[in-house]
Design a protein that fits this description.
Radius of gyration: 21 Å
Bound molecules: uridine-diphosphate-N-acetylglucosamine
Distance between the termini: 9 Å
Shape: elongated
Number of strands: 26
Number of helices: 14
Helix content: 25-40%
Strand content: 25-35%
């Protein structure tokens, strides 16, 4: 198993081209199942989660070619409607294939992501919506068996929470449904807009993506197209945290600064100067950060839960007390115990974490248990005295392309062993 070794206190300097968005690539690849003809997807990040989606597409019978960041998918010969358990478990977001497979084949058989029974696993919003669209869904032996032999029907769907995955699943399913689907309280993330833009280029009729109400008029067929994935705003936020915690000036290239609208003010509050324009962003960090006061994670356009962990790590050596309130996922503080091993002073109570800035962190052997937690440990390692050895690198590789290579190019002392 690989580990990352980070020896802290090196100043960073230079430019990063921000990778394509993982959370856009995954649903978009699933949506290619709806199309006939060739899809050419550019700026697709080279990540294990993307590889997992390609394995699923190949298993279903799609032709898939990859050349660096360009992926070509031909879905003319989709021959299967099931996804075996081992493929489903490779990535949590495999559930977004559900709506696509039903829409394309009229049936689907998928195991639950993570193999749990339906109760504790929150895919209830996906299933409720698909049932409202006429799918018959049964839970048998850890599998979901779904039927819609006459196709799905448009429906008026009201989400009790603006779930990103459920919104994507419904949009995909609705494109080939009979009639019109309306999603009220839809998620508004930029990745939803990217998916809708891709599908509309294929011939879909999706209106209002990025707003709270999305309307989809079903069409009879979709044609493959060419599409460039948007930049990854969470990777951008992570590199900003790396610059912030080391008192550095770093330039990000290839970003959309409006996607970072809730993130930039938090860095500014902590004393960083930010200049952005023309797809670029410069962050100039002070010698020592000030506290971030209160960071509350919220659905977009609020502060993203995925950026919470790297920012919390940056707050560990800030001057003063920062408070984080995690409103989206309950289990997003699992890396905190590891930060405490490095000398961080953090107390959690339910969804609240209180971070009292320490004068210094110290390198230690730590273990990551999830993607953004792994990024947080790397951020902490960059400012810690001595060497931090981070286990669980495979989590990091689910979401960041060549993480240690990019940071080394900026001057960090980081290597994978
Ligand atoms: C997506 C992102 C993930 C991000 C999250 C929130 C991808 C591949 N992943 O995950 O990185 O952290 O959005 O921005 O795009 N929920 C239910 N029932 C459901 C679905 C969700 O209760 O059927 C709950 C979840 O438990 C969670 C909240 O809704 O508390 C948000 O989840 P959701 O927006 O669906 O996140 P994902 O799409 O899984």
């Amino acid at each position: 198993m690989s580990r990352l070794l980070v020896t802290g206190r090196e100043k960073l300097d230079g430019e990063v081209y921000v990778q394509g968005a993982k959370n856009s690539a995954l649903p978009l690849l699933a949506a290619t199942i709806l199309t006939k003809g060739e899809n050419i997807i550019f700026n697709c990040p080279e990540l294990s989660d993307v590889e997992a989606s390609l394995l699923i597409l190949r298993y279903l019978g799609c032709g898939v070619k990859r050349s660096g960041k360009t992926i070509i998918v031909k879905s003319d010969n989709v021959s299967r409607f099931d996804i075996p358990d081992d493929l489903m478990r490779k990535t949590r977001s495999s559930i977004v294939f559900l709506g696509a497979i039903i829409a394309r084949t009229g049936k689907a058989k998928l195991s639950f992501p993570g193999g749990c029974e339906i109760g504790p696993r929150p895919i209830d919003l996906h299933l409720k919506a698909l049932r409202e669209m006429g799918a018959i869904i049964e839970e048998k032996h850890g599998y979901l068996e779904c039927f819609a032999p006459k196709g799905l029907n448009g429906a008026k769907i009201v989400l009790s929470f603006p779930s990103v995955g459920a919104t994507e699943d419904i949009i995909i399913a609705a494109c080939l449904a009979n009639g019109t689907t309306t999603i009220t309280n839809a998620a508004r993330e930029p990745e939803i807009c990217d998916l809708a833009e891709y599908l509309n280029k294929c011939g879909a009729k999706i209106y209002g993506a990025g707003e709270g109400v999305v309307v989809i008029d079903g069409v009879t067929a979709l044609e493959g197209t060419q599409h460039t994935i948007i930049p990854d705003r969470i990777a951008a936020a992570t590199f900003m945290a790396c610059a912030a915690v080391t008192g550095s000036h770093v330039t990000l290239d290839g970003i959309v600064s409006s996607h970072l609208a809730s993130i930039i003010p938090i860095f500014e509050e902590s004393g960083c100067k930010i200049k952005s324009g023309g797809g670029r962003l410069d962050i100039f960090a002070p010698k020592r950060l000030k506290s971030m006061r209160i960071v509350r994670t919220m659905p977009y356009p609020g502060f993203p839960t995925d950026a919470q962990a790297p920012l919390l790590a940056a707050a560990c050596t800030a001057q003063g007390t920062s408070i984080f309130v995690e409103n989206i996922f309950e289990n997003r503080y699992r890396h905190i115990g590891e930060l405490v091993r490095m000398g961080a002073n953090i107390k959690t109570e339910g969804k609240v974490a209180v971070v009292e800035g320490a004068d210094a962190l110290y390198g230690a052997a730590v273990e990551a248990t999830d993607l953004r937690g792994a990024a947080a440990l790397a951020v902490a390692g960059l400012c810690a005295e001595g060497t931090t050895s981070i286990g669980g690198v495979q989590f990091l590789e689910r979401g960041y392309e060549d993480f240690e290579v990019v940071l080394s190019s900026l001057g960090a002392d980081i290597k994978k062993i």
